[in-house]
């Protein structure tokens, strides 16, 4: 019986590619010693006990620091999906890129916390974009995994989008959100 379950698990593992649903937070206050560098995928709504908020979803391309679910500061490896709170400053500069046709590699480095009145503070950031690492959205996630399937593994080739490529897309200057 155990061998049958192990065999079924092995067959499933060979057929499926795991999609990471766990995400780590980049806490500006606690992680400011290392920049958050990665591909900006989107801005998402995050439920919370206190009040819901929005965060940018970024897949790291360089190691950084993050906060796990228990609140511990952890080392975060390349390829990790991270969330950073979409503060007013970050929203001003990144929202358009989060929903653009292409995915951009960006760097977010907290630089200074300043008072804004009423006992409140605001973080300032150095935000940079790597214009040499721009990819079509279909190069990532489930769409990319499906596009790489052999045609014989699906009922009809008409169900599949064209295969994703890592070639640079042709980008007009109006398409660049920065």
Question: What's the quick description here?
Answer:
The protein has 178 residues and is α+β, with helices and mostly antiparallel strands. It is 20% helix and 38% strand.
> What is the SS-derived class?
alpha+beta
The strands making up the biggest β-sheet line up spatially as 1-6-3-2-7-8
**Helix-strand pattern, N to C?**
HEHEEEEEHEEH
The biggest beta sheet is recorded as: 6 strands, mixed
- Rg over CA atoms: 19 Å
Low-pLDDT segments, ≥5 res: 148-164
Write down the overall mean pLDDT. 80
Count of individual helical segments: 4
> N- to C-terminal separation?
58 Å
- The helix content, as a percent range, equals 10-25%
Number of strands: 8
Work out the strand percent: 35-45%
Outline type: globular
